[in-house]
Structures are given as structure tokens and as C-alpha cells.
Design brief:
- Helix 5 links the parallel strand 6 and strand 7.
- By secondary structure, the protein is of the alpha/beta class.
């Protein structure tokens, strides 16, 4: 990976902000991801994110921390937080912003145990494909302390398929939430990555198969939802 995401975060942190990130998928047109949004404070977070942060407890793992906005809020509230990300640039920014425990590490390499594991901004995206969901859920389960919880959000993106293509969704070989995700920044394109959106019932069933319970906490404003897994 070229770590275009990390470069963009570093530019913003270093006051070299002149452009935003552009994102798109194999089923959607290009869209703007404003860099200031990735540095938002609590007041500018969606209600779903606010709720997740408010029900965190104990020692917390922030997976895919990005610029560290969630970790920073939790840390300022007195929580012990560990933030991880696979973007070197994101890790540099999170450290600069004051996150005390931050590490360049993919989720599957994490070995510590936690009271709360936080995966926000479509936390299921990190699973990449439906076939890998059980692998990730089993690993997340192994990282939970007794009475621990996983707080995760995702979206049911069936709305992105027009009504006339509902039959196509039902008949296609791969799950409709499996997307190819692209980003570009300052005319440089990242290597495409797999990104997974899961509907609630599919996630709930996947949790059940690995011995986890999945309860919906709330629905967001745009087909998204927050769950507590334990």
C-alpha cells in the first residue's frame, strides 16, 4: 500500500491542507472525504459514534484509529486506551495529537486483552470479505477480557442497488456488501482494497456461529447501525 490516507492526514496535521481525499467503490461514483472531518471533535461526531464512545468501559482498544479522534476523546475522559492502525501516517498523526499508546499493527497481530474493543466508521470494513468474518470475530473474541464488549458499526447497503436489480443481489455469487474500495489524493491513487459492509442479520448470525451475542444498540440516519457484541 502507498499509504495515501496517511499522507493526507499528515498534510492536514502539518497545515499543508489544500485538497481532500476522493473515494469511490465498484458500485458508487466518486465522493469527497473532507480531511477536517477526520480530525473532528466529539460535538461533530454522528450520534452513533457518540453513543459508542459513551458506553465504552475499562481498557479500550481503538481499531483503525486514523487520526485518533475517538481515542483522544476517551483518553481525555480518563480511560486507558490503545490505538492501532495499519497506516504509518495515521500512527504518526495520532502520536502527534497526544495519544499515549499507539501502535502500527494490523488487528490480527494484536494479542493483548481489553474490556472494550472499538471498531467505528464501518468497523466491519476491516473484515474485507464475508469469508473472513468468522476469522476476525474469533480473534476479537480472544482479545476480550471477562465481561468484555466489542462496539462496532456497519451499514446495510442494499439501498445502493436499484429496485430492478434486487434479483441480481439475490442471485450474485458474492455477498452484495463486498466492495472494491478506491481512494485518491493529490492525483495519486491507492491500490484498491476489499471493504465489507454487513447487514445486521448477517453479522448477528456470524457472531452466533462463533459463540458471541450481537445486540443492536441503535440505528443511524443512513442505513447504518451500532452493535454491542459480547
Amino acid at each position: 500500500m502507498k499509504d495515501i490516507f496517511g499522507k493526507a492526514l499528515l498534510d492536514y496535521q502539518n497545515r499543508n491542507y489544500s485538497e481532500d481525499i476522493i473515494t469511490w467503490t465498484n458500485i458508487s461514483d466518486k465522493d469527497i472525504l473532507p480531511l477536517p472531518y477526520l480530525f473532528r471533535d466529539f460535538s461533530k461526531m454522528p450520534e452513533l459514534e457518540k453513543k459508542a464512545l459513551q458506553i465504552c468501559k475499562g481498557h479500550i482498544l481503538d481499531v483503525g484509529c486514523g487520526a485518533g479522534s475517538h481515542s483522544l476523546w476517551l483518553q481525555n475522559k480518563g480511560y486507558k486506551v490503545k490505538a492501532i492502525d495499519s497506516s504509518k501516517g495515521a500512527i504518526e498523526v495520532a502520536k502527534y495529537r497526544g495519544i499515549l499508546n499507539v501502535e502500527l499493527k494490523p488487528l490480527l497481530d494484536e494479542t493483548q486483552t481489553f474490556d472494550t474493543i472499538l471498531l467505528l466508521m464501518n468497523g466491519t470494513g476491516i473484515f474485507q470479505e464475508l469469508s473472513q468474518v468468522s476469522t476476525y470475530l474469533k480473534h476479537l473474541k480472544s482479545l476480550l477480557k471477562p465481561n468484555g464488549q466489542i462496539l462496532m458499526d456497519s451499514s446495510d447497503i442494499s439501498y445502493m442497488y436499484a429496485d430492478e436489480f434486487e434479483a441480481e443481489i439475490e442471485n450474485q455469487l458474492q455477498y452484495y456488501g463486498e466492495l472494491d474500495y478506491y481512494i485518491s489524493y493529490k492525483d495519486e491513487e491507492e491500490i484498491p482494497m476489499k471493504w465489507l459492509y454487513l447487514d445486521f442479520e448477517t453479522l448477528k448470525m456470524a457472531c452466533k456461529t462463533v459463540g458471541l451475542q450481537c445486540d443492536k444498540i441503535m440505528d443511524g440516519k443512513h442505513f447504518d447501525y451500532l452493535v454491542r457484541i459480547f
